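--- STAGE predict ---
source: upstream dedup step, 1 unique chain passed
mode: sequence only
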Amino acid sequence: MTAPASTPANTSAVDGLRRAWGWWWQLSWPALRLQWGRQLAALLTIALGLALAGAVHWINASALAQFESAARQSSAQADTELSPAPGAAPLSDRYFGELAARDDIAALAPGSMPASACRAVTAPGSACG
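--- STAGE serialize ---
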């Protein structure tokens, strides 16, 4: 089986890249060879600038996430909520009791009320949630 022949578009693109590389090499190599310290300083400056921009972005994202978490806590909104799927039947209190009895769920929300206390606070027959 033979390899497919290259199309004229691919050939012209490769030739264009070779020409661009040649021009770049002719223009930058003398500057790099004669002033290598200045070129190295410019490269380090660009790298440090990019690192600083990334660090500022990550710090701002972290601060925004902390602010949103504090706003949710101060307005008594839950980080997670257990609710039935849209159009599904409401969850019964039996499910909340089973979840409250699990150790891994209790570790996620150590300050939450147990299901029995939740049922006592809410109206009779309503689910906690």
